[in-house]
Amino acid sequence: MGGGRGTRLYPLTKLRCKPAVPLAGKYRLVDIPISNCINSGYNRIYLLSQFNTASLHRHVQDAYRFDRFGRGFVEILSAEQTEHGDDWYQGTADAVRRNIMHFNAKPDDIFVILSGDQLYRMDISKMVKEHLARGAEVTVAAKPVSTDEASGLGLLSIGEEARITDFVEKPTDPEVISSLVPEELRSTDGQCDRVLASMGIYVFNASSMFEALKGDSKDFGKEIIPSLVQDKDIRCHVFDDYWEDIGTVRAFFDANLQLTEPVPSFNFYDEDHPIYNYPDILPTAKLTHCDMDRTTVASGCMIGRSTFNRCMLGVRSMVGDNCKFDNVVMMGADYFETHDEIDIPDNISDVPDVGVGDNSIITNSIIDKNARIGANVFLSPKGIEEGWADKHNGVYARDGLLVIVKNAIVPSGTRIGCE
Fold this sequence. Notes:
The chain is α/β, with parallel strands linked by helices and 419 residues long. 18% of the residues lie in helices and 28% in strands. The chain has two domains: 7-248, Spore Coat Polysaccharide Biosynthesis Protein SpsA, Chain A; 286-416, UDP N-Acetylglucosamine Acyltransferase, domain 1 (3 Solenoid), CATH 2.160.10. It has eight helices and 27 strands. Strands 14, 16, 18, 20, 22, 23, 24, 25 and 27 form a nine-stranded mixed sheet that branches. Strands 5, 7, 8, 9, 10 and 11 form a six-stranded mixed sheet that branches. A three-stranded parallel sheet has the order 13-15-17, with no helix packed on it. The longest helix has 12 residues, at 92-103. It starts with 21 loop residues before the first strand and ends with a strand.
């Protein structure tokens, strides 16, 4: 599922949908659920989207080409006008309902429904086997989370044989949250209790899904799943491993920078369960007398004599000399350019090259693709009010961070924030 506007991830979603947001230097968010499917033995994948889909289409077409004998595919189904309606998807359930005709499903088929903006590694086949062994009609994947994090998630409680007995979507009342804490997840050392939170991952018998979608419910988490608790055999698959919902700018930033740690919570280096991507034909990165600590550098980068502390540098990142980066996610660029190719806007006399110019200092920031940041620039969210925006230069303050949007032009000498 990748159809939402991604308003909480704005301005990273200004020119693309959530699943197309770059991740970990060379991937996209959508590579995570697709790779989980492929590694689990499932290669018939539909991707439902509707907003700013051009970038997503290009990436999926470049990255996922199955041989014709395996009959696998990743097919994008965008919102379309039909005789039954001509408006946008109204939610996750509505998106599936509108595309049932494309699935050619039989009543005894199995559907796995995944979100397009989460970071985790799961063998989905184990969940499906568990679903079949229990004779369940619906299975919901859930992760134990602390009660401090619970208010923004769908919470559930289970009885015998993991049967779901209650499901509450994003409760805010502490007493309601506390009532859902199972005995085995209560704290014994003075730490927070834990409660089971839905991951937004579901396994449905096709017949049960068809029946659930007969009404006008718009969303699985808010409407479909809670309504089925009393009427269907709905079970829980407990997943107690790393899982991050990349729903906000801060969550995106933190998920990227934890990958730079010596032992990251999520491992992209697992050869048995790889995360797939487009074929990489870029040259190796070029570094010139850099000082780097906990920094990941993708292919195609050209980095000058600069200092980096806890940074993620994406493909084709260009950084000049005497720069200082501290806690920066730089997504890089879609292309290498020459000076002859620079398109100079009429209202700007001096357009910087793609990347970051000499003597620039950047802290606690996200630099989106193809951004042009000149020399002697200072960027920091410190002292900047939340929600502030310089739309002319493409710089936004979100979640305590600065975001320099895709294709932004920040002139030389610009100073935003304080030391």
